[in-house]
Every structure is written in structure tokens, then in C-alpha cells.
Amino acid sequence: MNKNFWNEQIEKHWKLAFLAPMDGYGDSAYRQSMKRIAPHIYCISEFYSADGLVHSKFLAGSVLPHKEIEKPLIVQIFWKDPKKFAEAAKIIESYGVSGIDINMGCPAKKVVRSGHGSSLLINEQTAFDIVKALDESTSLPVSVKTRLSFDGNQDLIAFAQWLQKAWAKLITIHWRTAKQAYTWKADFTNIYELKRNLDIPVICNGDVLSYTDGMKKVQNLDGFMIWRCSFWNPWCFLWENHLSDEEKKYTLNNVYQPTLEEMLLAMEFHASQLVATKWERKGSLEIRKHLVQYLKSFPGVKEYRKRLVTTESIDETKETINDIRTSFQVSLQKRPWLGEIS
Ligand SMILES: Cc1cc2nc3c(=O)[nH]c(=O)nc-3n(C[C@H](O)[C@H](O)[C@H](O)COP(=O)(O)O)c2cc1C
Fold it and tell me: Is the C-beta atom of 208 inside 6 A of ligand 1?
């Protein structure tokens, strides 16, 4: 791996599309499910504590192994002690990932109170020391995901330039401050301005709805990152050049709308990967929250959604998916989100 990784990717692909890190969601099975549909995206893992990875072989051995399809994988970590980051880097690097991202954006009270995540926005020296220590301890490129500011009173440009000086190789900005809730008024003005004052790649994040929407909003930036919309429609990372002429007929707000059968296959894939990576019990409980998202409401599906949120085993999950297949046999090639199932 090399420190110039991000510049090389931008040279090759111009604008980069990322699957955002998501605690409790962005595990290997989720990433595989997304890459199966959109192989061109870059995945960042959910965040892990640097301290946890250093002290628990079990944690490292459970969350760092990944499949070929997920590559190039970036692992995100959080903590506050630069030495811990350096120790964690050695472990992460041994799993063959392509980069390490530092979480400087998490607004959760517990995380902020203990000096991690977004609190680094107001502890600039520690933020600098972390990036520098991490950069010196690994041959992987180090990136940072942060927010516009902590509470609206910090200077984003000065902070990002400071991190660039510590050898951060890419920075992602979630457009909200750490104090803001999830409002829907994405405004990337400050991020466009940041890019004009920085030499490293800048990625925008927050309320990007799809690949097409990201390409509209990206402007002078180097890429965009999506989470919530991937959860609602895993096809959101495809745009018209990824679609055949036939598939182009089935888009809504520029996002491809899959057939019921395509959705069921995606659900089966996700469920089997989750069980394969987390074992039967944990995997079949965790898959519940994902499966209901695939199957948004359409007439007659409510009963199966109810079953999917109470399944206890992979067999039960597969059986429910097969029952949907049988009940909707005549509609398998129809597209529920286009209102084709009545
Ligand atoms: C449940 C949840 C978990 C998240 N986990 C992480 C995380 O582990 N690391 C991180 O940097 N951001 C995390 N985020 C923030 C997202 O990566 C992203 O910045 C945010 O959802 C805005 O993007 P979106 O509008 O596309 O959803 C999380 C957000 C949510 C709601």
C-alpha cells in the first residue's frame, strides 16, 4: 500500500463515491451487499476503538477480516491517545486494508465526554498528534472524517490545514456541526471553500441522496459519501452509465428501482453473509433491522415484514423470503417502489 493511494484513485476515477461508516450497520456483510450491487464504491468500516483493537484479539479477529469484494477497504478507528492509534495501526495493517480513517465527528455524548470523536474538533493539538502518530506508524494513507465544526465556533479551514500538516491524506466533512441534529438542509458552501484552501482531497457528506445527486453536489470536491440512502435503496450508488438501456426505464429520482426478485436476492445474499461472518445466532438477529428496509411497504407485504423482524435463525429468514416469493410469484419481475404491485 502507499501513501499516495487517494491521489491515484482520483487520477483514475476523477470523483469518488463512498459508503459512509455506520456503527452497528457497516460491517463486512453490509459492505459486501453494497459492493455486489455497486462495485465502484469505496467502503469505510464502522468505527472501532483503537484501544479495543489493541487489547482484544477477539475484536480484531472478528471485525478486521474482510472479503476480496470489499477491497479497497478503509478501517475507521476512534480514541484519544496517539500511542494507541499507532499500536492499532500495526494490527489493522496486518489485515491487508487500504487505509485508516480517524473518527473526529461522532457527536454521541459518551464519546465526546471521554475526549474522542467530535471533541477532537476542540482539542486541535491532540487531533494533530493523533494524525501524525498514526501516519508515522503505518504505510497506509491516513484520512479523517469530521464535521463542519463542534458547535459553530471553530474555524474549519484552520483545523483541516492543521491536519494536512500532520500528513492527513484525505478529509471528509459531514456538513453538520456536532451539535446539530439530523435536519435536511444540506449546504456544502463551507466545504467548497475548504477545498480551495487545501491540497489534499476533500469529500462531502450529509444528505446525499444518490450517485446522481452526489455528482451534482460534488462540484470542486473529490467525492461524496452516502449512508442513509444506501440503507433505503442499495441501488442508489448506480447512475445511468451503470445501467443498461432497459434498466434506465426503471428509475425514480435518478435511482434504479429493482424488481421484487432482485430485492429478494439481495436480502438472501445479505442474510447469508451476515450469518457467515457473525455466526448463526448473532447474524440472524442482526439481519432483522436490515431486511425490513429492503422491503418497503407495498400491498400484501406487511405480514412478511412482521415475520422478518422476529426471525430467530437463518432458516426461518430464508423460509420467510421464500414464502414472499411464492405469494408474489406473478409479481416477481415487478417493481414495488414504482407502485407496480397492487
Ligand atoms: C446509526 C449511525 C451510525 C453512524 N456511525 C458512524 C461511524 O461509525 N463513523 C462515522 O464517522 N460516522 C458515523 N455515522 C455518520 C454517518 O457516517 C454520516 O456521516 C451521516 O449519516 C450523514 O450522512 P447521510 O446523510 O448520507 O446519512 C453514523 C450515523 C448514524 C445515524
Answer: yes
Residue 130 lies in a domain: yes
Residue 177 Cβ inside 6 Å of ligand 1? The answer reads no
Grid-cell match 494533530, residue found: 128
- The pLDDT of residue 180: 82
Q: Is the confidence at residue 264, as pLDDT, over 90?
A: yes
Tell me which of 44, 78, 145, 174 to substitute to probe ligand 1's pocket, judged by most ligand atoms within 8 Å of the beta carbon: 174
The region, left, alpha or beta by phi > 0 then psi within -120 to 50, assigned to residue 251 is beta
Given a contact cutoff of 8 angstroms between Cβ atoms, the answer to whether 5 and 98 are in contact is yes
Please identify, by atom number, the ligand 1 atom nearest to the C-alpha of residue 20: 17
248 lies in some domain? no
- Shared domain check, 321 and 229: no
| 342 — pLDDT class (breaks 50, 70, 90) | confident
> Which residues constitute the domain of residue 203?
5-242
Closest-CA residue, ligand 1 atom 2, reads 22
Is the bond preceding residue 72 a cis peptide, omega within 30 degrees?
yes
Residue 257: partners with Cβ closer than 8 Å, 6 or more residues away: 233, 235, 250, 251, 335, 337, 338
Whether residue 186 is found in the same domain as residue 266: no
Confidence of residue 153 (pLDDT cuts 50, 70, 90): very high
| CATH (domain of 46) | 3.20.20.70
Are 66 and 212 within one domain? yes
Query: Are 107 and 211 within one domain?
Result: yes
Structure pTM? Answer: 0.96
CB of 226 sitting under 6 A from ligand 1: yes
